[in-house]
């Protein structure tokens, strides 16, 4: 009973699309994460540097006071009129303090040495912590992290502690950029996943089209095996196009095989009809009035026996033919020395038909091995020699056999000087049940299967069989078989 697969059907296209989407998601995610962290780290580093620079600038400028900071001293130092850049101590460039104080994202608080706030550009987020160490650290702000820088201020000349500085960067710009980048990356990721999924789907739709075609064709053929449908071939050259071609070739072969079988059955029944009809005729005749007539009885039994023998031969030949079609599977790697077989058949025929002149031209200088089962080569030679005897004329009873070597092949010739075969029949004599002169061949006991058995056997061993003939002059059959290098014969 047919077992149905319980698993859900998921199209290859969907699997392909999901696979590509997942693959690109992983790759893109890794790349985006690397870029994202590099970019945000860089941004954060810049913010930190800015804060550090600001702290250094402010503390240096305030350090010029050289006395504990007071509101008055501070206001002089942060005078808006002093907005020009000042060159202090040689090449050192300093931004005016006022500029640092006006930078929106920095909150600056300055304290006197007693910790009293004497200047503030905004409320501080982190409580001031008065130490003699300079520090920059991240602290928890109301909405997000903030950067806090703290340091003592020393007088430039006397190196005396004159106050404290606290600079805070609320990191608003950085956080904004961070979130924007996050959004852009998430959107890009979604877009890439969707685009690669779609691309994968449409690509597989295009690439797997031959599979759909094969599927449709198989479905059509299984619903009606006699239908002559083939998979449409595509104008491309890849594995699936190859599969399509191979599939079509397989269908062609199967079709040919089915046709051959049908033809064979019809040929066989046609061939059997005549002997069966003859036997039936004789038996009916005997039943009616032949039993009492010894002559009729004798003739009928004789005729019946001849037809029975013919039927037996026919059945045997049909069996040989069907076996000949499977030599490739059943008789692999059979090594036979051609010289021996040809000589043996030659000697046998010479003995069997003393009235014939047999000649063998053997041009082979050494034993030649071919990949053929010995009995099959003998069977083919017997078929050809039998025909040569059968179709020789009484005035020229001569048969020539020849053996010669080609590049990688060995050639066996069987020639007679009999009635010959006309050109249009030369092509057809290898067909099953084909006889040039049906009545005469039948008289000689032929079923028209000998040459087709020979051809099938030889072709099964990758050889070929050809025929040259002309009416009245005789026929020459040539068998060509590939030679194999046999180490045994070499020895
Ligand atoms: P059959 O058993 O009838 O001989 P084959 O297949 O051997 O069948 O041969 C097919 C036909 O080819 C024969 O009926 C005959 O007419 C013709 N034929 C075969 N061999 C020869 C030959 N050597 N000379 C002339 N005709 C031949």
Automatic annotation (TrEMBL):
UniProtKB keywords: Kinase, Membrane, Phosphoprotein, Transferase, Transmembrane, Transmembrane helix, Two-component regulatory system
Gene3D superfamilies: 1.10.287.130, 6.10.340.10, Histidine kinase-like ATPase, C-terminal domain
Subcellular location: Membrane
Reactions that this protein is recorded to catalyse: ATP + protein L-histidine = ADP + protein N-phospho-L-histidine
Stretches assigned to the Histidine kinase domain: 267-485
Transmembrane segments: 16-39, 183-208
Alphabetical list of SMART domains matching this protein: HAMP (SM00304), HATPase_c (SM00387), HisKA (SM00388)
Protein EC: 2.7.13.3
EC supergroup of this enzyme: transferase
Any one GO molecular-function label of the UniProt entry: phosphorelay sensor kinase activity
Any matching Pfam family: HATPase_c
Annotated HAMP domain residues: 205-259
A GO CC term assigned to this protein in UniProt: membrane
UniProt membrane topology term: Multi-pass membrane protein
Keyword NADP: no
Principal subcellular localization: membrane
Keyword check for Transmembrane helix: yes
Protein name from the UniProt record: Signal transduction histidine-protein kinase ArlS
Species name: Limosilactobacillus rudii
